[in-house]
UniProtKB/TrEMBL annotation:
Family affiliation: Belongs to the NAD-dependent glycerol-3-phosphate dehydrogenase family.
Protein name from the UniProt record: Glycerol-3-phosphate dehydrogenase [NAD(P)+]
EC code(s) of this entry: 1.1.1.94
Catalytic activities: sn-glycerol 3-phosphate + NAD(+) = dihydroxyacetone phosphate + NADH + H(+); sn-glycerol 3-phosphate + NADP(+) = dihydroxyacetone phosphate + NADPH + H(+)
All copies of domain Glycerol-3-phosphate dehydrogenase NAD-dependent C-terminal, residue ranges: 180-320
GO cellular component: cytosol
GO MF assignments: glycerol-3-phosphate dehydrogenase [NAD(P)+] activity; NAD binding
Ligand binding (substrate): K106, R255, N256
Glycerol-3-phosphate dehydrogenase NAD-dependent N-terminal domain ranges (all copies): 1-159
Amino acid sequence: MGAGSWGTIFAKILADADTPVTMWARREEVARSVNEEHRNREYFPDLVLPQGVRATTDAHVALSDADLVVFAIPSQSLRTNLPEWRRHFVAKSDQGPGTTLLSLMKGVELGTLKRMSEVIVEISGLPADQVAIVTGPNLAPEIAMEQPTASVVACTDHARAVAVQEAVTTSYFRPYTDTDVIGCELGGAIKNVIALAYGMASGLGLGDNTKATLITRGLAEATRLGVHLGADAATFAGLAGLGDLVATCSSPLSRNHTFGKQLGLGRDLAQAQAITKQTAEGVKSCRSIRGLAASVGVEMPICEQIERVCYEGVSPKQVVAELMARQTKPEKELAQV
Ligand SMILES: NC(=O)C1=CN([C@@H]2O[C@H](COP(=O)(O)OP(=O)(O)OC[C@H]3O[C@@H](n4cnc5c(N)ncnc54)[C@H](OP(=O)(O)O)[C@@H]3O)[C@@H](O)[C@H]2O)C=CC1
Ligand SMILES: O=C(CO)COP(=O)(O)O
């Protein structure tokens, strides 16, 4: 469900793993180009998609016979789409192991402060054991070129994670399994905010010491929140944590990195959005992640400052100064974890 950057490339992964796939596209022209030319002209005009990828704008056609339903739309739009989609897949969900609902989305919902798998459980009415996520260092344009990468399939039901793993393993995409859905999902959402910070540092002309500091302290605050919310700290040292954080922060292919860089160069939110075009989840998730942290009394200084840049008009230069002026403390905050 979603035929943008990641939806399209994930469809290619499924088809290359011999799993037939029907992509739901919001626009007719996108579905037509996939069916008639085996290309997604809007997102990857030069990429020929496997024959096994079909597309439709009809949610019923995409969903009614699916064993695996994959969500690849912007996080903040899931709640408005899911009630309509739900009626097409719930009927099949009580047969056999039941439909697996798979989230590729990396965000936290504004207002409810829910992770995407929580929104899916709430609206679908299906048990959490039927909801899985895929996350990791997975920049779609690199995977489009079949550059090798690893990823994580997380589900509280290990057997279901293994089934999804089998459905998406190819010569260029190597998924591992995990049962820590909370940690994997938070790792994916928080790294987008840290990538905004890293991009800002690039835009400001700051060097590798600054960037390494952002990655390391960004990981510290992601781990801190995760552990408070029931995640395993080790998850953050893995693909869904450090792996995705490094890939997204350091890559000019990342929309969050690019967006942050524009802010660092002095552009405002609207100008950065116009340049980035595609979804940069961190811009909205900085607010919900900060809300989530506040709800459990966890400090997330970098996320907090990114929110101030995005929504309070504070300059990137000013937030760097404020981060550096914070009270000094031990590096390992075991007492707080
Ligand atoms: N791109 C990547 O490398 C990766 C992305 N992700 C995550 O995957 C999710 C999707 O990202 P990505 O595919 O990159 O985003 P894109 O912006 O490339 O594509 C978004 C897709 O969702 C559709 N869409 C946009 N708004 C709505 C809406 N309100 N209702 C229904 N459909 C909508 C778009 O349709 P239209 O074309 O008509 O606008 C498009 O098909 C995000 O959470 C992202 O963080 C995770 C890993 C890698
Ligand atoms: O999640 C991603 C890579 O794993 C994609 O990052 P961006 O959304 O910043 O492009």
